[in-house]
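User: For my dataset I need records formatted as: sequence, then structure tokens, nothing else. Please produce one.
Assistant:
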Amino acid sequence: MVSSDKNVDILDSTLRDGAQGEGINFSVQDKIHIVQALDELGVTYIEAGNPGSNPKDMEFFQEMAKLPLSHAKLCAFGSTRRKDISCREDANLQSLLAAETHDVVIFGKSWTFHVTEIIKTTFEENLAMIRDTCRFLTENGHNVIYDAEHFFTGCHEDKAYAMKTLQAALDGGATVLNLCETKGGCLPDECRGIVSDVVNQFGSKAVIGIHTHDDSGVAVANSLIAVKAGVRHVQGTLLGFGERTGNANLSTIIPDLQLKMGYSCIPADKLCMLTPTVKRVAEIANIAVNPQMPYVGANAFAHKAGMHIDAVIKNPVAYEHVEPESVGNSRVFLMSEVAGRSMIIEKIQKFDPTVTKDNPVVKDIMKKMKELEFEGYQFEGADGSFELLVRKIIGKYQPFFKLHYYQTSGMNPRPEKGVNACAQIKVEVDGQIEVTAGEGDGPVNALDIALRKALVRFYPAVDKIRLTDYKVRVLDGKSATAARVRVLIESTDGVDEWTTVGVSADVMEASWLALVDSFEYKLIKDIEKHFRKMI
């Protein structure tokens, strides 16, 4: 069935093609959580793995059979039958049947080089493999999405044969003919031409799709151009990861199509879930979201220059191409020496609305901030530490504990896996002394554990704090081991995220300063939330 003119079906391949990216490894439970997140976002299809390739994927499909989805259609993935055997004899196709998904993605060869040199068969047998496989699955009650592997390269070598492979899939009953730009070398003008030819020949008989890779840096551009040329099925991965340089990034494609080009990809009321869903999938995949990522990155709507900030405060359209809230993101004003008075006021008024632009305290804050930045502090990426700095100057800060001492040491050989350092700490809270110790994977981890143990009986909320990232930057390499370092710590309590900074010639002291800011920021926020509930 051909798709309507302004609807574009999105197929997310995070769990199949994305899983081929370096460092990506999903457990069965991970895959289930990602499916649920994508289903809630409202994508049309989720390509969830190859049940014939490994037992884990088959276990996943068995588990998913017990968990119905509200919107998305789960797809099993596999290849055409092997050469010179029947479909019923092919173990891969039997695995696809056993996966029991109504929608199945099948890939076959479009490039003559792959036919003769990789699978080593004849052109006619390859066409039969495509046709027979699609027909076999269709006759067994499945909807077939056909992936024409290396289609664009195949068109270079023998366009007539590449077109014949699409006809074979169509003859077998495939409803989607998906054009795969497998090597990622095709540029936009060439992509447009090939897609247009396919749409003209097959567009009235099947939905035409696109699947691009980013080896030339144009995977998103090729996908958008393909839609303009008539494609109504787009494949990619939510964060763009995948084999080599990755796949087309759906977190960019979806808002581009929906907000700028007038197409419907996911339900309109779900678009605001895009950024939270990207963060959720990244957390499951154990990777960091690139802060420069369009729409969903931490810096996508971040402003630093004073003139820019002043203009955005007056009217965001001055420097923002869409509203950050439309994709579930938020505007960020980065604190730095080039920041203007208007931005500082904007930040302060979030926790003290009484401070106005003419208040002398603003000048004090700017002066102190520039002094600290001269020492090596950088507040543009440390929102938590900047807020604490402001609170100290305007009198809205309270220390939660007094440090008597801390000390750390390494342990070699390791007493156990994940332990190579220990820390001891003595703190005082309201006159009560607490001395604790902690073991961890490195001195900072050990110190974090020790501080948490020391404070948890006074402040149970610290048990929810989790350090998600730790970065060290040497500020003056010429000073060698005496160089000052800047430490950034990113933290979360499972709901909010914040970043804190510390600077010192001693990396442990810099880490301690950032760590203390992280804990105090969380505790101050919790107190304010409690008071707001009481009002």
